[in-house]
């Protein structure tokens, strides 16, 4: 697979840090993996890419192809294949679940379930509690 540079908006590390301070709940660690610049998508482009990506079509197999594998694969497709590094891999220890964080070019974000291509809301119970864990961006 040859990587492609998807046209995305270039933002600074400080800009991404500001979004993460607003998005990630207190007590959850986040880490920026790139040093200086980030490429983030518009919501429109993200929706188009989700339609192209096949991650949600792969069958779930416990311990072999489960939530963390889906989240890492989706994260990797955007980062490596398309050069869009304004996406996070979420490890939610509270919920024993893994999913993604998408940062958009307007400074908003969305928690994303790559297993079924749907946005999710953080909650007080269920799979998206995120009171402890980490987010890699």
Structural overview:
With 137 residues, the chain is of the alpha+beta class. Helices cover 26% and strands 26% of the residues. The chain has helices at 13-23, 43-52, 67-81; strands spanning 9-12, 29-31, 37-40, 87-92, 97-103, 109-113, 118-120, 133-136. The strands form 2 sheets. Strands 2-8-4-5-6-7 form a 6-stranded mixed sheet. A two-stranded antiparallel sheet has the order 1-3. Strand 6 and strand 7 (118-120) form a beta hairpin. It is globular and about 35 Å long. The model has no long low-confidence stretch (mean pLDDT 89).
Q: What order do the strands of the largest sheet run in, or round the barrel if closed?
A: 2-8-4-5-6-7
What is the averaged pLDDT score? Answer: 89
Shape: globular
Q: Can you tell me the residue ranges where pLDDT is under 50 for at least 5 consecutive residues? A: none
Give the beta-strand count.
8
The end-to-end span amounts to 22 Å
Proportion of residues in helical segments: 25-40%
Backbone structural class: alpha+beta
Largest sheet geometry: 6 strands, mixed
Output the helix-strand order.
EHEEHHEEEEE
Query: Radius of gyration, rounded?
Result: 14 Å
Total DSSP helices: 3
Proportion in β-strands: 25-35%
Précis, in short:
With 137 residues, the protein is α+β, with helices and mostly antiparallel strands. It has helices spanning 13-23, 43-52, 67-81; strands spanning 9-12, 29-31, 37-40, 87-92, 97-103, 109-113, 118-120, 133-136.
